[in-house]
Design a protein that fits this description.
Pfam families: PTS_2-RNA (PF01885). The chain folds into 2 domains: 3-76, Arc Repressor Mutant, subunit A; 97-177, ADP-ribosylation fold. 33% of the residues lie in helices and 18% in strands. It has 6 helices and 9 strands; from the N terminus they run H-E-H-H-E-E-E-H-E-H-E-H-E-E-E. It has helices at 3-19, 36-45, 52-61, 106-112, 128-136, 148-153, and strands at 34-35, 67-70, 73-76, 97-102, 122-124, 141-146, 158-160, 166-168, 176-177. Strand 7 and strand 8 form a beta hairpin.
């Protein structure tokens, strides 16, 4: 499959597995899963056929491992705006994590910290390089350092998704270091 098709399929999956499953008649279970055959049927019925081989290739080759397939079901690993419980256990984070953003959001982040916005959790990266790529999707990246170890010690709960993205409810400004 060519790169253009790969991106189109991945974006289609993100839209319907994270944000708007009802648009194509899907119903996610409580943990965000839907049978693969239902997804493929719904996509075809709504004018965007995906072959099982294409689906497998997108899931297996996605550098961010955005999707998981298990027991004939598929789900997005995180980033949902629809109600789901990913049933991720609490986990102890490393001492620091990173968050990639762009300059136009820094003033608000300094005042309010990192908020989940329309998602369930704030997404944090395990390394600076990943955070730089995440921030770079919207412009010139700004990488914030999160004192996740201190947050955890102070009672904040963290989870880690299957693809290594760290999730938490909110990062208060006092736990953030901003670049000079």
């Amino acid at each position: 499959m060519d790169e253009r098709r790969m991106v189109r399929v991945s974006k289609y999956l993100a839209r319907h597995l994270r944000h708007d499953p009802g648009r194509i008649g899907l119903t996610l279970d409580a943990h965000g899963w839907v049978p693969v055959d239902e997804l493929l049927r719904a996509a075809a019925e709504h004018g965007f056929p995906i072959t099982p081989a294409e689906l497998r290739e997108v899931v297996e080759s996605n550098d961010k491992r955005r999707y998981a397939i298990e027991d004939g079901r598929i789900r997005a690993s995180q980033g949902h705006s629809v109600p789901v419980d990913l049933a991720l256990p609490a986990a102890e984070p490393p001492e620091v994590l990173y968050h990639g953003t762009v300059g136009r959001f820094v003033t608000a982040i300094r005042a309010e910290g990192l908020r989940p916005m329309n998602r369930h959790h704030v997404h944090l990266s395990p390394d600076r390089a990943t955070a730089t790529r995440v921030g770079g999707r919207r412009g010139v990246p700004v990488v914030l350092v999160v004192a996740s170890g201190a947050m955890h010690a102070d009672g904040h709960v963290f989870h880690v998704s299957a693809n290594g993205v760290w999730l938490t409810g909110h990062v208060p400004p006092s736990y953030l270091r901003f670049p000079s």
